[in-house]
């Protein structure tokens, strides 16, 4: 039912109607089962003196609910993953406290529904809101855990008129192209003003490029047209932090990071293929000038070109391909953590951390015990932490 029939096949309207009824009734019953599961779990939690501040029905959104299109719309930041043929979630959950997350994870597991955890605008490949399997989205927007930090900029040695001094959170408004003077709470409005089709890629540069090489690069960009670059300087404090201190590994030895970008507004597969070919050509052109063996990449500029897994038999082998590009030596440690807290690979996407292959890890059956729930919550928090960390350094 996931794959639409090929356009050449004549489909009777009756069959379509039947399909529609089947799909909507199956999602309605998933809603009911899910709600019942949340309610059951609520009772368990209440016995443990933990109160729900919201009714379970308030955090659960089915496709038939009026809240659903708005929530889904606020998630999509790349039009390539917001088309009619993009697979849609069966449910969206908007937890506002840890016990909601625990219950949601348990109930997803019980109903055999894959979980995607909503990420921010940097989720360039839609992995946090699209899956081929029947799935739901956990959207933690109502989790107001992160306190807004106001930090002053240190002296940069520039002339005063070169700088606009503002708090960190105000700089987020500036990057977001808000008009100056707009109140910080404008950041809470999640509906983007407009959404483009886009593709992003990344690289790390460890040797200086010569003037001649830069000239060649400008010529290439002019030839391709439309493609863009952002160079982010590294070094300083970042280079002093040991690689092993956090999952993010790109520390000492990196001069700068590159973001490759291309955005377009024309619909259709032809436009998409032509723009994707341009950015990939620029990426190939840069091969001699960037990190090697492996060519490194920045997780927060998610790029499925550098390797994916289908989370099947070969997930460890497949995961190692992109894993060492994103995490270098830290990849092995992440696999150990993953294997300890999520041995059945419940939390997964096209570029998730794999578990160790079956031969080297003893698989335990899921029991639904409080201990497992606790471990899963730790994993969710861990993923969120990782995401925040990447954002801080992006
Ligand atoms: C909820 O609890 C009832 C009673 O214990 C049980 O029969 C039912 O299967 C549970 N439903 C779900 C969806 O977990
Ligand atoms: C949301 O949709 C479900 C399933 O169709 C329905 O049972 C529920 O009453 C709806 N909730 C609201 C608030 O509309």
UniProtKB/TrEMBL annotation:
Signal peptide bounds: 1-28
Keyword hit for Oxidoreductase: yes
Residue ranges occupied by any Berberine/berberine-like domain in the UniProt entry: 297-354
Keyword Signal included in the entry's annotation: yes
An example Gene Ontology molecular-function term: oxidoreductase activity
Gene3D superfamilies from the UniProt entry: 3.40.462.20, Uridine Diphospho-n-acetylenolpyruvylglucosamine Reductase, domain 2 (3.30.43.10)
Pfam families: BBE
Keywords: FAD, Flavoprotein, Oxidoreductase, Signal
Coiled coil: none
Name under which the protein is recorded: Berberine/berberine-like domain-containing protein
Lineage: Eukaryota, Viridiplantae, Streptophyta, Embryophyta, Tracheophyta
């Amino acid at each position: 039912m996931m794959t639409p029939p090929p356009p050449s096949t004549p489909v009777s309207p009756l069959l379509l109607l039947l399909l529609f009824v089947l799909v909507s009734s199956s999602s309605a019953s998933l809603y009911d089962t899910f709600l019942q599961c949340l309610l059951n779990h609520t009772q368990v939690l209440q016995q443990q003196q933990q109160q729900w501040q919201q009714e379970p029905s308030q955090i659960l959104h089915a496709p038939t609910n009026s809240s659903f299109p708005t929530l889904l719309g606020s998630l999509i930041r790349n039009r390539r993953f917001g088309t009619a043929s993009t697979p849609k979630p069966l449910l969206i959950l908007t937890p506002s406290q840890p016990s909601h997350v625990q219950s949601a994870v348990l109930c997803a597991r019980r109903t055999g529904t894959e979980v995607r955890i909503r990420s921010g605008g940097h989720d360039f490949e839609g992995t946090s809101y699209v899956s081929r399997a029947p799935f739901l989205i956990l959207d933690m927007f109502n989790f107001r855990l992160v306190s807004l930090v106001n930090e002053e900029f240190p002296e940069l040695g520039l002339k005063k008129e070169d700088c606009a001094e503002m708090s960190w959170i105000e700089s987020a408004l500036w990057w977001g192209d808000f008009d100056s003077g707009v109140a910080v709470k404008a950041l809470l409005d999640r509906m983007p003003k407009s959404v483009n089709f886009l593709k992003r890629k990344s690289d790390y540069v460890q040797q200086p490029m010569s003037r001649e090489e830069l000239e060649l690069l400008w010529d290439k960009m002019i030839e391709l047209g439309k493609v863009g670059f952002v160079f982010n300087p590294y070094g300083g404090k970042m280079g002093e932090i040991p690689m092993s201190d956090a999952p993010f590994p790109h520390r000492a030895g990196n001069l700068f990071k590159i973001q490759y970008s291309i955005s377009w507004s024309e619909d259709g597969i032809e436009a998409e293929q032509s723009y994707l070919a341009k950015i990939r050509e620029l990426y190939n052109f840069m091969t001699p000038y960037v990190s090697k063996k492996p060519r490194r990449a920045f997780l927060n500029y998610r790029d499925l070109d550098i390797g994916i897994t289908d989370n099947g038999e070969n997930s460890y082998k497949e995961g190692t391909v992109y894993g060492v590009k994103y995490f270098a030596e830290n990849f092995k440690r992440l696999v150990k953590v993953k294997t300890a807290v999520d041995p059945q690979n419940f939390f997964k996407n096209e570029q998730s951390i794999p578990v160790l292959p079956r031969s080297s890890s003893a698989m335990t059956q899921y029991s639904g015990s409080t201990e497992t729930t606790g471990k899963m919550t730790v994993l969710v928090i861990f993923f969120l932490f990782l995401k925040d960390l990447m954002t801080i350094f992006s």
